[in-house]
Amino acid sequence: VEVWLRGVIGSLVVGVRDDGTGIPPTGLEGNGLAGLAARVEAAGGRLSVAGGPGQGTTVAATLSVPDGAA
């Protein structure tokens, strides 16, 4: 498992990547990632989820950072 936190001009990206079984091609089920996406979007950010069967999964949240904050 890899976890990271990166500052990019105007935003902060936090993510996690694993080498597990990946996400099924039919999409996500349940409330876990949907709930996470809703919380990230409520904070003005966006959530990306990537991966596929046998490829592991990467989940990253990108949040805006106001000017002068840091």
Can you describe this structure?
With 70 residues, the protein is of the alpha+beta class. 16% of the residues lie in helices and 41% in strands. The chain is built from one helix and four strands, in the order E-E-H-E-E. It has one helix at 32-42; strands at 2-8, 11-18, 46-51, 57-64. The protein has a four-stranded antiparallel β-sheet. The protein is flat, with a radius of gyration of 13 Å. The termini are far apart.
Can I get a quick summary?
This protein is of the alpha+beta class.
Q: Which descriptor suits the 3D outline?
A: flat
Summed over residues and divided by their number, the pLDDT gives a mean of 88
User: Order of SSEs, N→C?
Assistant: EEHEE
Q: Which consecutive residue ranges, at least 5 long each, have pLDDT under 50?
A: none
Report the total helices.
1
- What is the helix content? 10-25%
- The amount of beta strand, in percent, is 35-45%
Rg computed from alpha carbons, rounded to a whole number of angstroms: 13 Å
Distance N to C terminus: 27 Å
Largest sheet descriptor? 4 strands, antiparallel
Strand tally: 4
Structural class of the secondary elements?
alpha+beta
